[in-house]
Amino acid sequence: MDQVLERQSAPETVPEIEATLNYLVNDGVKIFTEASGGGAPDKRGGTTDPRRVVIRNGRPHAGEFVLDRGGFRFVRHDTRVSDFFDEDEIRRVYYPEMEALVKAESGASRVVIFDHTLRTADDAVREARKIREVVPRVHNDYTEWSGPQRVRDLLPDEAEALLQRRFAIIQVWRPIRLPVESFPLGICDARTLSTDDLVISERRYPNRVGQTYAITYNPQHKWLWFPRMRREEAIVFKVYDSEKDGRARWTAHTAFDDPTSPPHARPRESIEIRTLAFF
After folding, report:
1. Percent of the chain with pLDDT over 90
2. CA distance 121 to 143
3. For the residues 107-135, what does the mean pLDDT come to?
4. How far lies 9's CA from each of 1, 59, 180, 181, in Å?
5. How buried is residue 273: exposed, middle or buried, by Cβ count under 10 Å (0-12/13-18/19+)?
6. Strand partners, 277
7. Which end of the chain is more exposed for a tag (fewer CB within 10 A), N or C?
8. Residue 130's Cα: distance from chain center in Å?
9. Mean pLDDT on 109-116
């Protein structure tokens, strides 16, 4: 029993690990993701570039992260949601919680939640519940074009006025039931991400085509993860900011195969919320 407890708790204190992250090569091959709609895996195009990288444990430094500097914040945040597989409860309980959290963390005066995604590393649960797979590919969810376009899509009557001032797209990620033992979220310090690392990738839906950024390898990238995250913990991170004054605008992130995962690790289950934040 003592050995099991030690195996499960040790990764929370280990200072760093080495793991493989899947970057993309900008070699002219079409990069795209064709969204499945849940249940089935997404179809992806592009040349994968697996790289062994050092990933630092962010827990000992949790208080040092600033949203406008590194692009993300790690927060303790309780939720009143009892069942994250209940769509109505998510919208009724979780959406207001996340609106308040994003306002508090970003200083935005208005936050509009427009999407949420449940993910699991368990194929059987994914198929049965029609939810999405984890994404083991380094990416950023919006581009210079698709960030403003999302405002036009979602708030067409207000869009042109809203786009005259600063806005951001801010996401919140958390486990939904058990502590994360497999495929945690790795996140890159935005200060180490260059615009030269960003490559447009099409995101294809049945009714529209959006854009994300695929990320090419750069040895300057500094990666962090928060081992064994629990449902009362969350990562708040920016995937678009219209302000170009040197603050963080993009935050590369990815699920990855964690070498410290225990044998027979429970598959990761998580939710991410996407919001428009207006200032």
Report:
1. 81
2. 27
3. 88
4. 12, 13, 12, 11
5. buried
6. 111, 168
7. N
8. 20
9. 97
Structure token pair of residue 188:
């890159």
What is the rounded average pLDDT of the residues 81-102? 97
The CA distance from 117 to 85, in Å, is 11
Q: What is the pLDDT of residue 192?
A: 98
Contact 251, 140 (CB under 8 A): yes
Residue spans of beta strands (DSSP E) within 35-76: 43-45, 47-57, 72-76
**Residue at 164: amino acid letter:** Q
Summarised one tens digit per residue, pLDDT across range 195-208 is: 999 999 998 888 88
Strands 139-140 and 223-225: unpaired
Q: What is the dihedral of CA 152, 157, 162, 163, to 10 degrees?
A: 40
275 backbone dihedrals φ, ψ, rounded to 5°? -135, 150
For residue 98, give the DSSP letter: H
The residue to which tokens 């699920």 are assigned: 255
Query: Torsions phi, psi of 196, nearest 5?
Result: -70, -15
As a whole number, the mean pLDDT across the chain is 92
pTM: 0.92
Strand 47-57 to strand 223-225: parallel, antiparallel, or no bridges (unpaired)? parallel
In the structure encoding, which two tokens stand for residue 267, read together?
A: 């598959």
122: pLDDT strictly greater than 60: yes
